[in-house]
Amino acid sequence: MKASIPIIAYLALAAGSIWAQQKAAAPRPARSGYLSPGETPDVARIVPLAPTEGDSRDALDRAVFRATRSFDGSPRWSLALSDNDVSTAGMFRAFACSLGVKLTRQNAPRITALITRATIDATAAFERLKQLNQQRKRPFLVAEGPICLQRPTGLEDNPDYPSGHTTFGWEVGLILAELAPDAATPILSRARAFGESRVVCGVHNASAVEAGVMTAAAVVAALHGSALFRTDLDAARSELAGLRRHVSGRAGCALEAEILATPPY
To answer: Fewest C-beta in 10 Å: which of 17, 47, 90, 203?
Structure first.
């Protein structure tokens, strides 16, 4: 019996080692972004302040809001409502056609972890800009017209500028385009449309969408300075390459392409 103790101990140690390796190999839930506060871009010095009432940018925002109310009830309106979902599942659904594969948390854990952590950095950046533009109201609070969300929306006290949805959509688009450069054109085209959906929906001004694009671009540029981000990016690239060998995201893509063929404004 005594001779078996070292064997049992060895097996227990080996099992523990295997478990530790598996645990280390699996991406952990993100608790913080890739960037320290000092590394996060000061987007207030990059993105212009929101339009002020009566200036030329404000006039353009009002005109675009009025014109895009005509989408009420259309297929583009329905897509805008779908694009309201900025959860990981919602993002994966939005980019399924452009990627040619349906991603999920289960089949793409490394891509999920990468995007989840990167969006923490994006949030830190655009929230700072929102604090500086608290006076900028969303268009449906200024002018009459239908919106794709049920009122009250929960957005009434959330400043318009910049668009957080657009920031997330463009950031994810840039990352996915880097993971699959051969599909960069459709991916970034869909990212643009994701932001435009906020205008179609009537919950953001066009200027807020432009500000979201600039915010995301600044954050992704800074992310490349993080060695951990680059490591996670490489792992996610390998994961996506494996998934794209089995194309599964084409259902309904012809309809989406038709809807997005013409920019809404």
So the answer is: 17
Token code pair at residue 74: 């259309």
Q: Tell me how far apart the alpha carbons of residues 109 and 95 are, in angstroms, rounded to a whole number.
A: 16
CA 193, CA 202: separation in Å to the nearest integer?
A: 14
Is 85 in contact with 93 (CB distance < 8 Å)?
Answer: yes
pTM given for the model? 0.88
What is the b/e burial string over 17-37, where b = at least 16 CB atoms within 10 angstroms of the residue's CB? eeeeeeeeeebeebeebbbee
| Angstrom distance (rounded) from CA 265 to CA 254 | 21
User: pLDDT averaged over consecutive 10-residue blocks of the chain (265 residues)?
Assistant: 39 38 44 94 97 97 98 98 97 96 96 98 97 98 98 97 98 98 98 98 98 98 98 98 80 91 96
Distance of CA 187 to the CA centre of its chain: 12
> In whole angstroms, how far apart are CA 56 and each of 42, 132, 211, 248?
25, 20, 16, 46
| Nearest by Cα to 233 from 183, 192, 172, 143 | 172
